[in-house]
Amino acid sequence: MSVANRPVHRPLSPHLQVYKWQLTSVMSLLHRATGIALSVGALYLVLWVVFASASPSTYAKFQAFNISILGRFVLGGWLFSAFYHLCNGIRHLFWDMGYGFEIKDAYRSGWIVVAVSLAATVVSWIVGLRLA
Amino acid sequence: MNSDLRTPLSRARGLGSAKEGVHHFWAQRITAVALIPLVAWFAISLIMMSGADYAVVRAWIGSPVVMVLLTLTIVIGLHHGQLGMQVVIEDYVHNDGMKLALIVLMRFIAVFFGLAAIVAILRIGFGG
Q: Hey, where are the domains in chain B?
């Protein structure tokens, strides 16, 4: 095998097993994880609309799951994922425009995103149930 | 003298070797901006409708403003999700055949569910 064709085993970065956990990397990971969760969740929301267009008895079966404990857990998870991905997405849009790259700013915006997405999940749940 | 191997025209077009330039990047950002108000509206609506019965949910989905906003939310959301899932697949699946197959399958699923949602919304709105 010639030198040019030999596979190169370069070190991969980051070395996950020795990598120090930090807010910025955890948030980056969580952005991707919530994105995947929301993509699957979007299919579930489509099913909701499709079941609503079907007969009352079909919809009742679907709705029975939604109002179960597990269903509420899924809804809460969807809400937090949506608000987290939304807030952190706005943080990413600011980075795309060239703002907030200082380490201090990245941590500050990070904590704001964590606080706002948690608060928005709780507040929207309370407001939504009150309006319903 | 042009020091890189690309022609001046190729550089002016800015499309790179894949011939699509920053299209994926732009589509992801524009759908993201569109989803900011849509998801905020939808999150509140979802909680309001989470315990509602059949008639209430259908009356809500079938109202003209909701038909438009819900279609936008689902279609733009699926498009944004599809762009993101493509990047995830490209990052973690290193077998070229498997990578292509997964991206195509994922896109088919997104289009199928998007169309299913549109048909369902129209059916409710126009009383099918």
A: 27-125
